[in-house]
Amino acid sequence: MSRQLKLGAFLMATGHHVAAWRHPQVPANAGLDFAHYKRLAQIAEAAKFDTLFVADSVAAPTQDIASRMARSDHFEPLTLLSALSAVTERIGLIATATTSYNEPYHVARKFASLDHLSGGRAGWNLVTSDNAAEALNFGRDEHIGHAERYSRAREFHQVVTGLWDSWEDDAFVRDKASGAYYDPSKLHVLDHVGEHFRVKGPLNVARSPQGQPVIVQAGSSETGRELAAQTAEVVFTAQTSLSGAQAFYADLKGRLAKYGRSADSLKIMPGVFVVVGQTEAEAQEKCETFQQLVEPEVGVALLGRMLGNFDLSKYPLDGPLPELPLTDSGQQSRQKLLTELAGRENLTLAELGRRIAGGRGHYSLVGTPAQIADRLQEWFEQGAADGFNVLVPHLPGGLEDFANGVVAELQRRGLFRTEYEGRTLRENLGLARPQNRFV
Ligand SMILES: Cc1cc2nc3c(=O)[nH]c(=O)nc-3n(C[C@H](O)[C@H](O)[C@H](O)COP(=O)(O)O)c2cc1C
């Protein structure tokens, strides 16, 4: 069968557009409405999406402008996806969990549990936290710096995956006749002692259906790419142009060989923000409806956060983006992308805030299903992507539009599945089941 693209449904309460919650067709209380999420999961699964994807931050914004944004109340991703595992059967479940404000044992245990609960559909989006405010909830005055975060992340990953191999696949014999619950020769105690962690093990969860949940990484700086090359099986990234995405794709795939990995063992899935209409004019009009709802101060607050936790409220809205130091707390790759965008198009602060109000800097497409499919096909066939993590302005409407229009078009072109190939997330993504390192 010819190569087909992978799709993730990036769920976010009322939708990705910062003003979506104010739209008449959007349930403003969606962030904590399980029925809403259940519907999203079922729409995505009916459309054969590979995964649901849930981002996270372990802090709520506190600046005054936060009271005008729907960003302060939402479900914790692992809890949400555990509940969704019970109302879905085939779709993958990727939750974000930070390596900066967690302990590896907790993370290993929860994701192994989700993998068991879901019959092998769990994925861990390993992030290092791009929100400086998180530090204040974990006994620190300041966020951990960029280099230190990645150093901790690397070791965190080693410990988590080591714990996932605590038990061989057939360790639990549970033989009532002999009284042997498990075979002690198939137990492996990790005994990890490192720079950041000391973890004895073993994990108190049997090896999970996928062997190990799928490792997803979202970070695209130099350090982020190196960690991805070493550890990730899926990479979520923000790219704005075909040429930029091609360069990122070639760079990251090119780093795999030195870790003994094949190009196929890592799937690169840029984010794409999509507004779909029956006609191009209708799509533009839909997009404009959301844009009209953005207060300039809200757009600029979002911009400041995405540039790496800067307060831009003291700068004139109609002035240029001020010179900012390299962020040490946020995403360096996103800061670069947004700064380049502002310079290239000579945008004022308010214009840039408005520009990213929907897709936060991700590649954005507004058009008919065929127009959108053309661009996705181009990126997929020209070495820029193995698939896409799809962001829609509002939920559930935007996801329905994408499923009914764009997915159907991709299927007609033979670029996307019409039935799941496998039972587990690994099987559907075409990723091998990892060997237990102790065997
Ligand atoms: C596309 C993308 C999505 C991300 N999503 C999250 C997230 O949901 N939660 C989070 O704490 N960090 C997120 N991050 C940031 C990561 O934590 C990253 O490890 C770190 O902040 C630095 O990113 P960088 O390597 O681009 O500098 C994301 C990064 C990218 C590029």
From TrEMBL:
<feature type="domain" description="Luciferase-like">
    <location>
        <begin position="17"/>
        <end position="384"/>
    </location>
</feature>
<feature type="binding site">
    <location>
        <position position="96"/>
    </location>
    <ligand>
        <name>FMN</name>
    </ligand>
</feature>
<comment type="similarity">
    <text>Belongs to the NtaA/SnaA/DszA monooxygenase family.</text>
</comment>
<feature type="binding site">
    <location>
        <position position="56"/>
    </location>
    <ligand>
        <name>FMN</name>
    </ligand>
</feature>
<dbReference type="InterPro" id="IPR011251">
    <property type="entry name" value="Luciferase-like_dom"/>
</dbReference>
<keyword id="KW-0285">Flavoprotein</keyword>
<feature type="binding site">
    <location>
        <position position="146"/>
    </location>
    <ligand>
        <name>FMN</name>
    </ligand>
</feature>
<dbReference type="InterPro" id="IPR016215">
    <property type="entry name" value="NTA_MOA"/>
</dbReference>
<feature type="binding site">
    <location>
        <position position="220"/>
    </location>
    <ligand>
        <name>FMN</name>
    </ligand>
</feature>
<keyword id="KW-0503">Monooxygenase</keyword>
<keyword id="KW-0288">FMN</keyword>
<feature type="binding site">
    <location>
        <position position="221"/>
    </location>
    <ligand>
        <name>FMN</name>
    </ligand>
</feature>
<dbReference type="GO" id="GO:0004497">
    <property type="term" value="F:monooxygenase activity"/>
</dbReference>
<dbReference type="Pfam" id="PF00296">
    <property type="entry name" value="Bac_luciferase"/>
</dbReference>
<keyword id="KW-0560">Oxidoreductase</keyword>
<protein>
    <submittedName>
        <fullName>LLM class flavin-dependent oxidoreductase</fullName>
    </submittedName>
</protein>
<dbReference type="GO" id="GO:0016705">
    <property type="term" value="F:oxidoreductase activity, acting on paired donors, with incorporation or reduction of molecular oxygen"/>
</dbReference>
<feature type="binding site">
    <location>
        <position position="150"/>
    </location>
    <ligand>
        <name>FMN</name>
    </ligand>
</feature>
<dbReference type="InterPro" id="IPR036661">
    <property type="entry name" value="Luciferase-like_sf"/>
</dbReference>
<dbReference type="InterPro" id="IPR051260">
    <property type="entry name" value="Diverse_substr_monoxygenases"/>
</dbReference>
